[in-house]
Amino acid sequence: MKIDLDKQLARLLKGVLVVSLCSMHFVSHAQTKVWQQDDQVTRKVGDVHLSMQKNSARNAEPGAFWASAINGNTSVSGEFRGACSEVISVNIQAIDQRRVDLQAFRASKSGRDAPIKDVLQVLQQALSEQCEQLQVIRVNFSSYNAKPDLNIDYKGTAAKADGWKLQDGHIATAFDGALKFEIRSRDIPSTAGIDFRGGCEAKPTLLLEPIYQNETERQLSKLPTIQNYMLLARDVSAVYAKHCPNVTHIQYALNPMPQDYLCESGECFLEAKLDKEWVVDAAQFKVKEYYRPITNMDDVAEVLAAGRFDILADYDGFFSGFVVNYFFVYSDNCKRYIRDPVQRTMQSVKRERIGNVIYEEFGEPITFDVEREHADVFDRNWGPYEQWALKYIFDRTMGKEHGNPIQNSKDVIGSLVRFLTQIREFVGHNCTADKTLTVQQNFINYARSQPPVTGKYATDKRPKAKFPPNGPSAPAFTKSYLEARTRAAQEIRELREREGKEAWEARKARAPAASGNPANEPTRATPPADVPQASPQRTRQEIIAKTRELSRQYAEETNRLAQEYQAKMRNAKTREERQALQQEFQQRRQERQQEQEKKVLELSGQ
């Protein structure tokens, strides 16, 4: 049977439904935990608004939920995120210091004067209901003020054995080993990050690693530097110490190490120690000492004269540059010694792209002679030389940390000109000198993969220093750490799947069986009698149309809320006001979304 309702009746039914749902929450609260249901649980105790909801994130541990308590008069807000344990930690913040009296607390620094009693009491009662094993609550109270010396950083402990009386400081208890917390953070200027979940240890070892937002960032981002890791380690140490105040020494493994560093001892760590402030030491890491035997064309000539092809193997670009410029200079200075010449031409080309059109400007062509017998060596090295020269210019122009690119490019082009000058000075007019011809014969032999001429000239140069790709700074620790993290993630997935199946079975068991429903077919819960139900007369088209109308109304309501939020944010004068407005907007938007989803289910008869 189709039911048409006017707006007034719809509002009345909505009110009845909300009351019914609230009543259901409180009646079933003792039996059903917040993480076992999809609905948000809300209540008001005095001036404090309490909200609780399960954490539906994919990586959330089984039983994870959040609880938030806000005093509407003082704007003091408390929050818990996590799963039940014997020890949990709650964070309370004075969002707007203009609305709360902190004078007595600033004088005593004691929890008895902190304006958090009502918020803490509501959270304690709610968390005790959800977590029967709860024994200790760690309390963190803070505030934000433009003047850092007015900020608050209070820590307290409330234990069930003491009747939940708040004591100053994070006091050691017999349950501290059960405290689990998460640190998931990323350094803002780089990709250095941490993904940690665990408990307090006397001397913990944590893993720092790049964290990427997507595959594109993974491909384009540079690895974190040692400075990026050290700054992150300092900040993470302070966060870890808030959970574990007795910790004064933390080790950090890096995966991978920064490119310019190595570990000589096998297992290397950053060492963070507390000395008034956290100080991070990288003494276990050694800077790679790069040995570069070839930096200019004089070096190439020396290595060629000695026949050290093992050194040339790492410098193909310099080799091609030497060969091409040698032929050019030899033609210019020693043309009469070229017995069977063939001509080659070099010409500079300047390319400029405007939109999809490429404009080319050609320089004056330069023609010179090459010995026919050796022309294949020139031809084979001309293309690689062009590519190397362009890369040489780009890397040293855009890769410099200081100076402007235009000046850098002038300096680099000046280097290429100096390379040509060095070859000119080497060849000079010594066209038939033994060293000149030995160098020539050796670059021909190298280009043709033939053995070198050796024993005539010596060099003290040795091959370029080579290092394997950087891996973990502590391979053994990192392997066991990652394996444990993978096992934990798998266990969470399995537990969440089991939890979902159990919740589904529980819903089926609670739902009354419909008349004539087959025993092996899932039953559906009967909606309240005053809620419009789907019937055979309600066609699929009608349901789709009404669902679209609900979506349109929801979009308009969300847009109105967003406009109100933006207007209030423009008028907000402090960070605390903006934070409070943001929290209010997110909560109202979430409530609207849940309301829409519920109505859609009602329309479809679910």
Structure overview:
The protein has four domains: 7-178, no CATH class; 184-288 and 471-478, no CATH class; 311-431, no CATH class; 536-606. Strands 1-2-3-4-5-6-7-8 form an eight-stranded mixed sheet, covered by helices on one side. Strands 9-10-11-12-14-15 form a six-stranded mixed sheet, sandwiched between helices. A two-stranded antiparallel sheet has the order 13-16. 42% of the residues lie in helices and 19% in strands. It has 606 residues and is of the alpha+beta class. α6 (297-306) crosses α11 (434-447). Mean pLDDT is 79; it is low at 1-30 and 513-538.
Write the topology of this structure.
Blueprint lengths: L6 H22 L12 E5 L2 E7 L10 E7 L4 E7 L4 E8 L8 H6 L8 H14 L5 E8 L9 E7 L6 E3 L12 E6 L5 E7 L6 E6 L4 H6 L5 H18 L5 E6 L6 E2 L7 E6 L1 E5 L4 E2 L9 H10 L2 H4 L3 H18 L7 E6 L2 E6 L2 E6 L3 E6 L3 H24 L6 H23 L6 H14 L27 H36 L29 H32 L3 H29 L3
Parallel strand pairs: 5-6, 11-12
Antiparallel strand pairs: 1-2, 2-3, 3-4, 4-5, 6-7, 7-8, 9-10, 10-11, 12-14, 13-16, 14-15, 17-20, 18-19
Helix pairs in contact: 6-11, 8-9, 8-10, 9-10, 13-14
Structural class: alpha+beta
Strand percent estimate = 15-25%
The biggest sheet amounts to: 8 strands, mixed
Q: What's the β-strand tally?
A: 20
Rg over C-alpha atoms, rounded to the nearest angstrom: 37 Å
Q: What would you say about this model in short?
A:
The protein has 606 residues and is of the alpha+beta class.
Q: What labels would you give this structure?
A:
8-stranded mixed β-sheet, 14 helices, alpha+beta, disordered N terminus, 606 residues, single chain
